[in-house]
Amino acid sequence: MTHTLSSQxxxxxxxxxxxxxxxxxxxxxxxxxxxxxxxxxxxxxxDDVVREIEAEGGRAAALKLDTSDTGSFAHFMxxxxxxxxxxxxxxxxxxxxxxxxxxxxxxxxxxxxxxFDALYGVHVKGPFFxxxxxxxxxxxxxxxxxxSSGLARFSMEGYGAYAMMKGAVxxxxxxxxxxxxxxxxxxxxxxxxxxxxxxGGGVVRDNMDVNGFVASVTAMxxxxxxxxxxxxxxxxxxxxxxxxxxxRIEVSGGMNI
Length: 257
Description:
- It is a single chain.
- This protein starts with 9 loop residues before the first strand and ends in a 6-residue tail after the last strand.
- 44% of the residues are buried.
- The chain is 43% helix and 16% strand.
- The protein is of the alpha/beta class.
- Helix 4 links the parallel strand 4 (93-98) and strand 5 (138-147).
- It has helices spanning 19-30, 43-55, 73-88, 113-134, 160-180, 203-206, 208-216, 226-238; strands at residues 10-13, 34-39, 60-64, 93-98, 138-147, 186-192, 248-251.
- The chain contains 8 helices and 7 strands.
């Protein structure tokens, strides 16, 4: 993999140390995109992703970020500017993937205000203000992807609060696409179905009853894998998709159709 530092495209991926974010980082790196990934609690996992990308000839860096802590964004922006200059010879990014997140499994009647606020901070407030902070750093003609969920289209017991947040993400995508259109920046939503990751305690990956149920209601007869989503995001960002914007693209293998 060869490139000139100043001309290489660069992506920022929040929550890139595990699960879907890790897969997105790996797939983008294989398309010769430089990657800056963020992590919250696992610097070791983030370093593993960076080493994997570098072992394949790519360039990557990891930065700590709590997307719910908007007060930390100014410090993060300075750290990002430094790592862009030092690692990629850049002052801007081309792609942003708002991926960081977590789930809460609880009926609406059992959802605590603390859990609701935590979901809101990570999935709604954080991406809104992080994107706002980054807008001057995103190249005209760039591309933003916000991660939603199939649960914003269909319902499964216990995910009401989480799905509600993802519904907000999808509305945010449309409005952001409208405002950034004059700059040629595309903004889209990728909505994964049930994926075999550690999300929700790894229930889809590790519970064979749940895995089997997901397969039974999915057109392609299996649960999704991180690579399914990573490949989709990388293709959307780096392919000939500049005329695709304000769209919700579900990557679920045809779940609950």
